[in-house]
Amino acid sequence: xxxxxxxxxxxxxxxxxxxxxxxxxxxxxxxxxxxxxxxxxxxxxxxxxxxxxxxxxxxxxxxxxxxxxxxxxxxxxxxxxxxxxxxxxxxxxxxxxxxxxxxxxxxxxxxxxxxxxxxxxxxxxxxxxxxxxxxxxxxxxxxxxxxxxxxxxxxxxxxxxxxxxxxxxxxxxxxxxxxxxxxxxxxxxxxxxxxxxxxxxxxxxxxxxxxxxxxxxxxxxxxxxxxxxxxxxxxxxxxxxxxxxxxxxxxxxxxxxxxxxxxxxxxxxxxxxxxxxxxxxxxxxxxxxxxxxxxxxxxxxxxxxxxxxxxxxxxxxxxxxxxxxxxxxxxxxxxxxxxxxxxxxxxxxxxxxxxxxxxxxxxxxxxxxxxxxxxxxxxxxxxxxxxxxxxxxxxxxxxxxxxxxxxxxxxxxxxxxxxxxxxxxxxxxxxxxxxxxxxxxxxxxxxxx
Amino acid sequence: xxxxxxxxxxxxxxxxxxxxxxxxxxxxxxxxxxxxxxxxxxxxxxxxxxxxxxxxxxxxxxxxxxxxxxxxxxxxxxxxxxxxxxxxxxxxxxxxxxxxxxxxxxxxxxxxxxxxxxxxxxxxxxxxxxxxxxxxxxxxxxxxxxxxxxxxxxxxxxxxxxxxxxxxxxxxxxxxxxxxxxxxxxxxxxxxxxxxxxxxxxxxxxxxxxxxxxxxxxxxxxxxxxxxxxxxxxxxxxxxxxxxxxxxxxxxxxxxxxxxxxxxxxxxxxxxxxxxxxxxxxxxxxxxxxxxxxxxxxxxxxxxxxxxxxxxxxxxxxxxxxxxxxxxxxxxxxxxxxxxxxxxxxxxxxxxxxxxxxxxxxxxxxxxxxxxxxxxxxxxxxxxxxxxxxxxxxxxxxxxxxxxxxxxxxxxxxxxxxxxxxxxxxxxxxxxxxxxxxxxxxxxxxxxx
Lengths: 449, 449
Ligand SMILES: [K+]
Ligand SMILES: [K+]
Known about the structure:
Chains A, B: It is found in: Cell membrane. Two copies of one chain form a homodimer. Chain A has 449 residues and is an all-alpha fold. Chain A has one domain. Helices cover 65% and strands 2% of the residues of chain A. Chain A has helices spanning 2-10, 14-33, 47-58, 68-71, 74-105, 123-156, 160-175, 194-209, 211-220, 229-253, 265-277, 294-306, 319-333, 348-375, 380-391, 400-403, 406-433, and strands at residues 340-341, 344-346, 443-444. In chain A, strands 1-2-3 form a three-stranded mixed β-sheet. In chain A, a hairpin with a 2-residue loop joins strand 1 and strand 2 (344-346). In chain A, helix 10 crosses helix 13. Chain A is globular. Bound molecules: potassium ion (2 copies). The site of one potassium ion has 12 residues of chain A, from loops.
């Protein structure tokens, strides 16, 4: 184990580490889910269903081709929960490790641990940081699980054992931004229940903010002036997207008889907020997505494409990337030759990383949308939604995945995998590869991807 | 007139010049098209139809809400042709003038005229360049008009007068990338006629390459090694998009009984090539767009969004911008700290301009798509196609514009206007505003937008 961390600390090929870890976990998950023990009926799931579900769980995606609650046995559900936990912890720890490596490489003060700038990162540092990440993850899940369990037992009369099971499963699923639910309608039955909805939303947001931001907030939440650029951008963009998304869904769906229409005003606000939180990138739904207005789908797609914070469990191009793009455009419109944010100059490397990640992501989404349109008889509305959902590891669905042909399901499986490991791999690889940097002015590095 | 050019030469606010010129022309056109003389029936067109058509003509867009051939009188058609000519010449000359201003400002060798680098650009220079642009435009239209007239008279038995009228109208419409046609089915009846299709395609490509590229080719087409970066990027990206588009349409539509299906192999190739040329950004069609596969729509949308060359009659973000983005991503993937293209380093200013233009364009298209989805009951497939077509001044239609509510038509009118003057305005404004530039290495400027 010591050797493993020492190796990781030397590793300059994040792509290989990440691909291997996720690939092997998915294969193991597929084998387990293919067993007759894993299904409720006792008839083994076919390999594609097992592969799709295992990939979706490990990549904390949440897209499904079968209903989780009715198709899988309790054993199958536990396998899924474990895969989610491994996938979520894996992405958080690997992202954190690579963030450290990048920080070290770029000679920046490593914010995540206490070591001095010049000290070489070693296996013991990594282990300590990873330990903190795991502890944080488990603590949050315990808190969320407790609240949900209490609500299920006290509010809905579930037996204690069943309530605990439901509470823990959905705590794991929400904190890791996975979005698997044990009800066929996801969380629609709780649309008006603030206990469930706000707890899940909080878990999703905290899990998706990313470890560096969460730990900086914990250390110095009362001194915003000392926050790093990463934290400031992440929080600002997150707040804007959540507020904007809530507002748009309120406006568009207010009178829709199949979504917000029948609810009272508190219910409308709660459901619109929940619907705005889920695209980043949990994928539960408390409204019937298929009945939402096409314009709400478009907004959801944009939110899913952006996703959440860097080095967390969220997917997408990340709110940091969107923030950087906005600052680049803003500086350009003002005719400034440098992109300055809060007394810091954004490095050219960070700018180019943000641009490259975004361009490649758009190209990837366009390519998969094209191929799926060729393969499937469905409209762009449906296909684009599902493709962005697979790319952004969101898992919201308008029904394309479950109705898709085997070839299309294989493609979505691939996209879930690439959407999960692509941005992180790319971001770390790009940052580590960066060479020939100049030092002119105080600069600050921001994680992209 | 002399005074006018002297003023333009001093002008540092391209946005104001362009907006004024285009706005005034559109208002004049709307007044003329509102007259009872302009319609075939003698009943004056309503103001929105007149405004939409005038905007579409001046912005060389080609989207229509009424059939051009049957709704308008000969007088109306001539007004449309004149508006196209004014709009096309306007965009070409203004783009050229601003290119010169930008070149002067940036201290680059002005490629478009013979003046030395240090010489101050004055009214007389501008007049000479504009004269060359106008002469070139009229010469090309005369050649294209002659070929088309001969074909209509000799091949289809049109009387000489009518043939000349049709030939000139479609020469103006194609060279200026306008896409207005005098047949209700656009050019579908000529789908298998290489004389018409290849002539129109050639006019569209040459008109859309942009004046700087065309003149550089004319001067030194036998010495590719001396071509500027702008010319090399424009030609390469153009070739890739045309070949790629042709291939995609061949593959996707080969067996479609309503498009390529019934044709022989030569016909298929011709129609696929024509369909690949038209999104940049002429907007004629020889296939029934509404019957194409949704995946072909997606590819068409991407091509329309990109458009053609800078400082020509084409719209979109321009092939140059796409080329720059590709080079930025490529350099980033190779871990290079500079973006080098063919022994030249791309300026940071050009990179940021390309990124800003693209981001703003995507935001614009997303915003208008959202609003139109809210306003209209149609699917994303249809709305996105029409919005991108309006933005890219392409004018290909899947029927949304003609069926749209007045509010939606007003929005599309606005988008046609912004899509036409936005990229040029933005590109020139950004380049002129740029300040505090450093000079480190040989750099070369590329026009973005
Ligand atoms: K998810
Ligand atoms: K056009």
